[in-house]
Predict the structure.
Amino acid sequence: MLGRLIKYEFKATARTFLPLYGVLLLLAGLNRLFMEFKFQNFAFGIPQILSWILYGCIIVAIFVISLLVMIQRFYRNLLKEEGYLMFTLPVPPRNHIFAKLFTSMVWMLGSIVVTLVSVGILALGSGMFTSLFRGLVEMQQNFDGDVALFWLTMLNFFVMVLSALASSILMIYCAISLGQLFNQHRVAAAFGCYVGIYMVMQAVNTILMLIIGTGFSNNADFFIHYFSNPYAMVGGVNIMIGGLGLLEIAYAVGFFLLTNFIFKRQLNLE
């Protein structure tokens, strides 16, 4: 049943994103063709200028719409009139949350990938890909040629980014769920809950940074000697990235459990 929920979410949202992705790639190809011509007459350059402006607007629109669709699908589909139908389905509330989360993450990542592909289309023949490859080689050399360690660090970073993305989305879902506990002004209440959650998270992050900073200052000589070794420095970077990833996972799990609890015990549909 979870698979069907995810399939339904993709069908409901693809009609919004796929045309935008197509237009963005089409404009990237059109602008790449324009780049091959040197317009001396201003009148002939107007279509090129308009095409570039539209290209930039589409990029902004894709990410703004990604955020709006994510919020709209969760709020209207689960906490408005549609919620009466959705919660009569023989699935636990956590499946609804996960389906919305998974779909939102895919479209967010898809928007990033399509934007990068459009930039790659514009950069064809410019040497950007050669420079990128050289940059990767130089980064690997900073790891003393240890390719496995380099890609392990990249994987660690990617996992941290995914964790942060999931945490950010679930934070919004949690705030919306808390907002529906109020009988009036639910949108304003959800926004207030979001601000409150954000402030608590910042306070927790600050406390953790102070604890880590105090531990570092009290053992500064040891850490300076330890990190003088390049491998130890890379290990320290991996520990830091992994720690941030674990923190984001902890936040994500907390938001998921709280949202699931509200849906199971405190659901208050309009």
About this structure: DSSP finds nine helices and no strands in the chain. The chain has a mean pLDDT of 82. Residues 127-270 form one domain. Residues 136 and 150 are 10 Å apart (CA to CA).
